[in-house]
Structures are given as C-alpha cells and as structure tokens.
Amino acid sequence: MLEAVLIDLFSLPANLQNNIQGLLHNTLEAIEKCSAIRAPCVYVMCCQRQGSERKGEQEFLLAALRGFQSLRRRLEVVCAQTTAAALYTIKQRLDEKDLSIIKVILPTIRKDLMKVYIDHLFTAVYQFEFEDLQAISDSESLQIPEHQHEGQILPSQDVALIQSEIQMYLESLPSLKGEITILRSSLIPDDIFLHGFTTRTGGISYIPTLSSCNLFSSSKRRDPQVVVKENLRRLANAAGFNPEAFHRVKVDHANAVCIMGKTEPADYDGIVTDQKGVTLAAPGADCIPVLFADPVRRACGAAHSGWKGTLLGVSMATVNAMVSEYGCNMKDILVVLGPSVGPCCYKLPHESAKEFHRIDPRCVRLFDSANPYIDIRRATRILLERGGILPENIQDDSITDQNQNITLCTACHPDKFYSHFRDGTNFGTQIGFISIKD
C-alpha cells in the first residue's frame, strides 16, 4: 500500500512554471480521490528562494493547499536551497513515521536526476515509483504504471555534481549526541600505532537506533552509504587517519584473513598489514572488534569476532597470519578486545552453548538452561593464550584496573554503544581501528 507521495517542484520546466498552482491543486486532488480510505503522507518539495520571490511562491503553494481537508494533517511543504537538502529532510520525515513505499511525482525531465539522488540518499529498504507531474495533473487520477520505462543514463559529470552537492550538504550538518569519542588502550604503544574503538557519538545518523556515528550501511538498514562515509570522514579527522586508506573486514562470521597487498578474499573477518598509513578496521555491535599490534616487527591487524568467529578461532587465525607473513614472534603480539556484549547479557541456545562449554566451563553460565549466558570474551582470551599469546599481552574485561577497561558491554551502555542484541535489526555499528604511523 502506498505510504507517501513526494511532489517535486524543483526546477520546473518553463512550460509548467506559469501554472504551478494549478498543477499542484490537480495533483493533490488526484491523490485525495485515490486515497479515500487512508490518505498517504504528502511532501511537496520546492526551491527556497530569497525575498519577495520566495514569499510569492509560498503564497501560491498555500493557496493550492487550501481545501484538502483529508490531506491537511499529512501534508508538508519542504523548501530548501538544494535538492539534496530537501530530499534528506523528507527522508527524515519518512523515517520518523517508518514509511518505506513512496510515489514520486515530478516533471519527466527530472526523473533521471532524482533517481541518482535517491540511489545515494536511500537504501533498498525503500520502494519508489515515479509518475509524470503533468500527466497526473491533466488526468486528475493517480496512475500506478504496470511497468517503469528505464530512463537514460546521466552523463558522468552530472552524477559527479550530484554527489558533490550531497557531500557538501552532509558535511554542513551538525554532529549529534556530542562530539566524536574514541576509546584507546594503554597496552598499544601510541608512538608506533594509531588505534581506537569508536562510540556512538559525534556523527550525523539521526534514526534513534543508528544515532549518531553509525559506521556501517546495508540494504536492510535505513542509513545510506553516503551518511556512513560522512561519519567516517569525521572520525578520521578526529583520530588523524586517512579515510581514503581505510580497509574494513568483509564480515562472514568465519575465520578467513586478508593479507594487505595480496589477493583479497570475497569475505574475511580478519585483516593484517605491515604497511604504514593504512588503517584496518573491524566492526562490532555486540561482536568483538579485536585489535592486534606487534611493536617489534611493526605489524598490525584487526578482526571481527562474533560467537561463530570465536568458535572458529578468528583471533588466532589473525595472529597466525601476522606470524607467517611478517615474521612476528607470538610473544611480541599485543591483543585488545573492544566493546562487545558481555556475559551479563548475551545468551545462546543450549546447543551452541555446548561449544563454549567445551572450550572452558567458565565461558557458560546457567549451562543447563535452554538459553545459557555466554562469555565470548573469555573464550577469545583462552584460545589466544592456548595459541601462545602471553596473558599479560591481552587486554579485556578481566584486567585488574577497571579504570583501564575498554571492553565494556555494548548492551548495557545504550548511551555509548550500538547493540544488535538490544536494538533489533535496524541497529548501528561501531568499529575498532588500527594503523602503523608514518
């Protein structure tokens, strides 16, 4: 069922400009007639003009809106200086109401441009249909086309201009929930390595479960890649790394490891390098972002360790890659476990819990229950120590000085961290990152 209608009055062609009031009136009338049971939300998008010209256009729009009682409470005019600004504002309104099925009514000449904006500012969560503004206005009925004709591909320079406009707009937005905050470990020497674990503050993501410094986008979430890229740019500025030399693991919840400079696997949960100035990163929103540093051989790594990756030994696989590729000595490698879901909150079905019980019974609490509590951090430490990592070279939540604890429970601290376990499917993601200083 159609949930929202977007009427695009930006940059109307000359043959339509003189009848903007009539166009809008007829279009709203068509929407009202076809939406008698449940009126969709309607957003009218127009260019924000200066002075008397702006006032005149607004009067025209207001006049056209009078009389549409069924739409009045669900109708909003959004004026902005750029299409990116107007469309992103409308996206916020859609997300506030959890709306995803949208019809865009616009001049045919704007369709291909609008598709580029939508491709950048929205994800696959949303469904869009397109209708010609003049056709609807003339027919006074809201058509649902049986099929959509593909538009022409825009010239690359036009796409680049749109991308630049979007980027400039996102860069202008204020940070939400305070400034960028980065947690750092005292175990990793900061004269050799740049590293940290992010929290949820200081970005521009506005959806509550993603706010504000979400660092991962997917087709199932409402935060588009351009917003994640802007959050990363702000993080890079605060931390001091180059976002163009940033490499995040391609999560598969397994134990494959990517060696920087060699053929990249399709998916991998660990990554290592000895190249200076290259930032490696692993995500976490309950799963553990694990950082590795060898100050002797000057090599580093990052791994994503959820419960499956923990059982498959992804952390030791990353250590072994550093040893085999860069000649690292096991006793020189430092390992830090970042914010992740703690044994206070994390449960798994009994069958999965058995695997952790086999590693060590202390990794499971209430083992005889249907869903025992699991300590994936303790399991990670045990497997690392068995593999040859010195106990004193591992930093996690078991350290004596809790003031140095950065392995906080993500589910217990909603003000600091994202949590899939706590927030559901539209959750945000933080990261652990590390690089070798130039």
TrEMBL record:
It comes from Sterrhoptilus dennistouni. GO terms for molecular function: copper ion binding; hydrolase activity; S-methyl-5-thioadenosine phosphorylase activity. CDD domains: YfiH. It catalyses: adenosine + phosphate = alpha-D-ribose 1-phosphate + adenine; S-methyl-5'-thioadenosine + phosphate = 5-(methylsulfanyl)-alpha-D-ribose 1-phosphate + adenine; guanosine + phosphate = alpha-D-ribose 1-phosphate + guanine; inosine + phosphate = alpha-D-ribose 1-phosphate + hypoxanthine. Belongs to the purine nucleoside phosphorylase YfiH/LACC1 family. Keywords: Acetylation, Cytoplasm, Endoplasmic reticulum, Hydrolase, Immunity, Inflammatory response, Innate immunity, Metal-binding, Nucleus, Peroxisome, Phosphoprotein, Transferase, Zinc. Its main location: cytoplasm. Pfam families: Cu-oxidase_4. GO terms for biological process: inflammatory response; innate immune response; regulation of defense response. This is Purine nucleoside phosphorylase LACC1. Interacts with FASN. Interacts with SDHA. Interacts with ATF6, EIF2AK3 and ERN1. It is found in: Cytoplasm; Endoplasmic reticulum; Nucleus; Peroxisome. Its EC number is 2.4.2.1, 2.4.2.28, 3.5.4.4. One of its GO terms (cellular component) is peroxisome.
